[in-house]
Amino acid sequence: MAPKTELSPLEERILKVLRGHPEGLADEDLNEKLEGTTSEGRVEAINKLLSIHRLSILQTSAGLAYKGIEADEALRFKGLTQDDHLVYQAIKDAGNKGIWTKELRYKTGLQQQQQVTKILKNLEQRSLVKSVKGIMHASRKLYMLYELQPAKELTGGAWYNKNNFDKEFVDVIQRLTYKFIQDFPESSLDEIVNFLQEKQVSTEVLDAKDIASIVRTLDFEGKIEIVDRDDVDVFRPALLAIPETNPFTSVPCGVCPVISECTPSGPISPATCVYFQKWLEF
Amino acid sequence: MSEQQPLHPIACQLACLLVEEQLGPLCKEVCDLLLRKETQSLPELSRGTGCSRFELHQALLVLIQHNCVQPYTLVHDEGGSTPAQTVFQPDLRSILYRFRSARCLLHIIDTWGHIDSPATSKIAECIIEGLLENGRLTSDQLCINVAGKLDAGCKNQTPHKSIKRTLCQLISNHYVERAPPADLPMPRVTVHPKALSKRGGMSSSAKAAADQAENVRRLDKVGYGKERYRIPNDLRLDDDSSDCQSASKRQKVNHPSGTVGAELKGAPILWRVSFEEFNRRFRHDACVELIDQAKDGKAAAVAAAILQKTRQFETILKEESSQPTSAGIIKAALEEMKSRDTELPDIPDVAEALRQLEDDDLGLINSAPGGPDGTTYQIDLRFCISLTRLKAMEAIVRQRFGRLGLRIWRVLLLTGQLEQKSIKELALGDQKEVRQLLYGMLKAGFMAVTDIPKTADRAASRTFYTWRVQPESMTEKIGIDTLHAMFNVASRLSVESVLNSELLQQLELENKAIFKTHGQQLGRLKVVRDLLESSLLRLDDTSALFNDF
């Protein structure tokens, strides 16, 4: 570990003031708080703090503002090149939705993939950034700041586990929701959410939006109906259930994937059909 | 008789298979040619089939007798200088209706006791059975046929009068109709307007001649339409029942020119089963069944009473809705039904039951205030059938593509067209699985995809693909697929019979030893035949829903 840089009293004072303003402090406000110091001294101290990464400049609606960086955090930035900072900033701007290398190259103007890869590896080793994989593009690595949690768009939300769709979990929540609607017809979304939260069926916090998507699937499966009662959507079991079977699908031809190619004299025919053979085995 | 519709190849194949099985290979050959060429004269048929004139005559007589072929008179020259020619057209619907014979008989057995006394139920059943077996018969032939069936093993003879009386009732209930005469003009072939414009405009004189021919055709059809369910004098004079009397009075009103009793050119009247009427009743049954499922038995009984009471006002098969009827009339109809069928549920307050039915979110029954007898109610028949079809389609999609497949299908049905990503989010499924199901449903014809290119080169990477469900085209697709499945099941049935033909021959010779040596094989054959035959009957129900209602 590199030796700790000694700070002057003014520099210590600046960092102390900024610690009280984690959202950042405007230049004028900082000057006010540093009474009795000369402007040259302040400029010199700020420049030094910026050079050793103990200070960062933020762009706020009111203009430029300063934000202090703790010593251990600053240590992680020590020795980074300008290009490293450029890449770090682009990743930071992407927020919790992340950014992939192609876009990173475009935003930073760094043309060589190898160079970007090297920088990213360095940033990852310093625990400044991390790579995640989204559900949309499983093979694409997305980079975001180390401390951020990936957005729902990337993880898929409550219904995904390690980027894989959790079918069993969806089925369990679906079954519980349907049972509740059967037991309490004309129940509202809030009632269903409360019921599921009380049940504590998952470690994942399921919000109203998540449960609404489950209720919607029940509607799409024709199991429930959505009825408007005084401008509030309530849910009840479907009046007209979908029949369990149909004569068409009860014969092999109804579920045959090659029915369109089936002809009496062709290679696929009712006389030689393997599905018929299996169906008529007694 | 409607205008001539294009024939689907699989329906034609199924018809040929059925004709060969029931009427023999010669009839099949003639029928096959007619189904391929649609309209043929006798010389053309002779050339096409290579049969002798005698064989052709025999085959055509059998086919006409069984309503599989209809002769028409083709007038080449409107002026009358060229002699008229008889041409033959296949009646595909009548041929395929042979699959529905058992259902027709069951319908008569189930309902006739409720229409008339149970004593005449057996006669009605035998009349329908006789007509289904023989195609078309005169009333005298029918009397002999029915009496033969009823009196088998009985000392007492059934009087022809009671058979004729039941026949009259069947005619007045439109279950039996006159067979169309051979000199009807041929139905007009529907030509697409674009095809007409391609051929170039007709001259004014040609157009006038075509219009005149069309008017003649329409007049002849109207004439047959009036005669279709008219009870002839010989049947009416034999019968003094009130049903026939009232039918007679109605017909007198329809024939003010004094033509009552003047039969069609003195030719013997041939009677046949009216498939149109049976289809109408089956359509009603489907609506009542839907209301039973959506509500309860009481609602279904109310719906059945409405349909029974308003049946006489239905003029076409695919009526949009039943005739508006007041609660009083429905109540009277229900009481009448209840007096004949004690199993019907008690409905003390019919008006309240109707109000509950009308308040239902589904909207199966509509009401209109202000009739002479107060609020009137009518069943939305078209909506009932659409809903029944929709539920059948959903069941098919679920059985074929699973629950996620159904979710995807319904997402698109309810929301219109969407991209794959949005479908995945709404249906809540795994991306890979959703994609596989979408393409599977596209291949099955349950879905359509539209490409919206972002650039002129139509590159796939720069194109949006939106998916959508088209219920109308899917209805058509399932209708055809059901006929295909029927053809396959019927073919398999023939194959099983051919494979075991020796065994069946032995069985016909009543060789009892065969049970000892081939008992297991015979048992399997029976189970297989039962399964295939029952599947055919149930497939025909689905076919009726998607192709006929």
From TrEMBL, chain A:
SUPFAM superfamilies hit by this protein: Winged helix' DNA-binding domain
Sorted UniProt keywords: DNA-directed RNA polymerase, Nucleus, Transcription
Annotated signal sequence range: none
Domain of life per record: Eukaryota
GO cellular component terms given for this protein: cytoplasm; nucleoplasm; RNA polymerase III complex
Subcellular localization, as worded in the UniProt entry: Nucleus
GO biological process: transcription by RNA polymerase III
Pfam families: RNA_pol_Rpc34
InterPro entries, A to Z: RNA_pol_Rpc34, RNA_pol_Rpc34-like, WH-like_DNA-bd_sf, WH_DNA-bd_sf
Annotated family: Belongs to the eukaryotic RPC34/RPC39 RNA polymerase subunit family.
Physiological role: DNA-dependent RNA polymerase catalyzes the transcription of DNA into RNA using the four ribonucleoside triphosphates as substrates. Specific peripheric component of RNA polymerase III which synthesizes small RNAs, such as 5S rRNA and tRNAs.
Name of the featured protein: DNA-directed RNA polymerase III subunit RPC6
Source organism: Apatococcus lobatus
UniProtKB/TrEMBL annotation, chain B:
UniProt-recorded Gene Ontology molecular function terms: single-stranded DNA binding
Keyword Nucleus included in the entry's annotation: yes
Chain ranges of the DNA-directed RNA polymerase III subunit RPC3 winged-helix domain: 394-469
Alphabetical UniProt keywords: DNA-directed RNA polymerase, Nucleus, Transcription
Gene Ontology terms describing biological process: DNA-templated transcription
Subcellular locations according to the entry: Nucleus
Segments forming domain RNA polymerase III subunit RPC82-related helix-turn-helix: 14-70
Pfam families associated with the record: HTH_9, RNA_pol_Rpc82, WHD_POLR3C
Coarse class of the protein's main subcellular location: nucleus
Ranges for region Disordered: 234-260
Transmembrane segments: none
Ranges of residues in domain RNA polymerase III Rpc82 C -terminal: 166-363
Keyword Lyase (UniProt): no
One GO term describing the cellular component: RNA polymerase III complex
InterPro entries assigned to the protein according to its UniProt record, in alphabetical order: POLR3C_WHD, RNA_pol_III_RPC82-rel_HTH, RNA_pol_III_Rpc82_C, RPC3, WH-like_DNA-bd_sf
Family per similarity comment: Belongs to the eukaryotic RPC3/POLR3C RNA polymerase subunit family.
Subunit structure comment from the entry: Component of the RNA polymerase III (Pol III) complex consisting of 17 subunits.
Protein function: DNA-dependent RNA polymerase catalyzes the transcription of DNA into RNA using the four ribonucleoside triphosphates as substrates. Specific core component of RNA polymerase III which synthesizes small RNAs, such as 5S rRNA and tRNAs.
Protein name, UniProt field: DNA-directed RNA polymerase III subunit RPC3
Organism ancestry: Eukaryota, Viridiplantae, Chlorophyta, core chlorophytes, Trebouxiophyceae
